[in-house]
């Protein structure tokens, strides 16, 4: 009998469940074949966000202890190594809805839903991205973000355009970020029949890429001018939001929360210098930076 | 009579028509409010919960409710009334409970807890 704990939260208890029988043996066999992914349960990253998956044996069953593994260990503990077991961590996160929760104390919560899985996978992806960036910067033969120069266009902050009575209620954050009025309250992916199916970084990103956005540092040619640098955030399971950078002289980002007024201030009424650190209210997950472009703007609906 | 929960940015806001009983309740609460005071309204429209909008085409009026603040807009004019105990917002939250999926309703409740305008009524 194994106890699986996804270490990701700060205030609330980390999701935890029991795994037994063939499933447990299969996991231990797979981990046993990759001893490089095994960390001490106390090792690794201990800050905010995803910190690893704890696998703990709850029995002295000889079958489960025959794989040369310690009775309690961690995988995907954010060690700066390609063999860190993120694939195994993903597998264990995706298994959450199939198992009853096993908290350390008190009444068991409800079975984790797909929203929780999406949220945890998003955290895992952020950690994986950080690790991948670190690896890229140390591999001289692989171009790093610092080595790539992409050009994009910055427009002057013009809230009056978006706040006109016949525009404001029909155009949302995605319209604003793309700088394209459609009067359809544009949704990522809808214009190409690939709208997001979940409110997660992964799904909204997929939909925006389907529209023709590029991830930052994946450059657009001059033929795709105007190209905008934008940022995506989500309130996991509930909604998404976008920001667009304005001129260097202005030095801030603008946004348009739904059908409300376009502005350059955050929820604390501070000018937005950095969308990663500004007050985003419930949009707690930062998904990343992207470029919009002319053909993407033509596609959004 | 329609109610829109102004809470999202990317997605469209949830909205629903009121049935006769709900409309009667809302109208009674609106009628009990003091006369709106004309003047400029607050521009506080954050990410997250921003209140409820009640649209009544018959009266060509949009009422926005957030905490104790009720803004009444008609063609070319707007005024603010104070609902001291936020009864109107509470009624709209109860109506929303019957309309929203459980997760979105819980999201609304979490937003209400952190809404500074609501904290003033507690």
How can the largest sheet of chain B be summarized? 7 strands, antiparallel
Q: β content of chain B, as a range? A: 25-35%
Number of strands of chain A: 9
Helical stretch tally of chain A: 8
Helix content of chain B: 25-40%
Instruction: Tell me about the largest β-sheet of chain A.
Output: 5 strands, antiparallel
- Termini gap of chain A: 51 Å
Mean pLDDT value of chain B: 91
Mean pLDDT of chain A: 85
Radius of gyration of chain B: 14 Å
- Strands of the biggest beta sheet of chain A: in what spatial order? 5-9-6-7-8
Q: What is the H/E order of chain B?
A: EEHEEEEEHHH
Pick out the low-confidence regions of chain B. none
Which terms summarize this structure?
heterodimer, A: 301 residues, alpha+beta, five-stranded antiparallel beta sheet, four-stranded antiparallel beta sheet, 8 helices, 26% helix, B: alpha+beta, seven-stranded antiparallel beta sheet, 4 helices, 34% helix, globular
Question: Describe it for me?
Answer:
The complex is a heterodimer of chains A (301) and B (122). With 301 residues, chain A is an alpha+beta fold. Chain A has eight helices and nine strands. In chain A, the strands form two sheets. Chain A has a five-stranded antiparallel sheet with strand order 5-9-6-7-8. In chain A, strands 2-1-3-4 form a four-stranded antiparallel sheet. In chain A, helix 2 packs antiparallel against helix 3. Chain A is elongated and about 70 Å long. Chain A starts with a strand and ends with a helix. Residues 133-144 of chain A have low confidence and may be disordered. Chain B is of the alpha+beta class and 122 residues long. Chain B is 34% helix and 28% strand. Chain B has four helices and seven strands. Chain B has a seven-stranded antiparallel sheet with strand order 2-1-4-5-6-7-3, with helices on one face. The longest helix of chain B has 13 residues, at 87-99. The model of chain B has no long low-confidence stretch (mean pLDDT 91).
